[in-house]
Amino acid sequence: MIPIQNIYYMLSYAFRVLNQQGYKKLATEKFDNTLELMAEILIKGISGQIKRGLEREYILQTEELTSVRGKLEISESIKIIV
């Protein structure tokens, strides 16, 4: 069986949060099972995301390029050619 602390360090490295203060103290807490640890990491991660803001918007940009990039709009391209 993999020690829970090892799983924590692997997850922390994967999420690049090992050095963040809120996560560091998790390493000293005792968890009965892996599920509790993962739930706590998820809670802290979601809380941080909510503080930063959940909404992100994309800015629609269209321009004529010589190479393919982004989403192809076939019907619009045919209209331009015809």
Question: What does this protein look like?
Answer:
With 82 residues, the protein is mainly alpha-helical. The chain is 52% helix and 0% strand. It has one domain (1-82). It is built from four helices and no strands. The radius of gyration is 22 Å and the shape is elongated. The N and C termini lie far apart (66 Å).
Summarize the helices and strands and which ones pair or pack.
Elements lengths: L3 H12 L5 H4 L9 H19 L21 H8 L1
- How many structural units, i.e. domains? 1
Helix-strand string? HHHH
Number of helices in the DSSP assignment: 4
The overall pLDDT, averaged over residues, is 79
Largest sheet: none
Helical content band = 40-55%
Find the structural class using helix and strand composition: mainly alpha
* Morphology: elongated
Please give the oligomerization state of what you see: single chain
Number of strands: 0
Radius of gyration computed on alpha carbons = 22 Å
- What is the CA-CA span between the terminal residues? 66 Å
- Return residue spans where pLDDT drops below 50 for at least 5 consecutive residues: none
SS strand fraction: under 5%
The gist of it:
The protein has 82 residues and is mainly α. It contains four helices and no strands. The mean pLDDT is 79.
Give short descriptive properties of this protein:
52% helix; 82 residues; mainly alpha; single chain
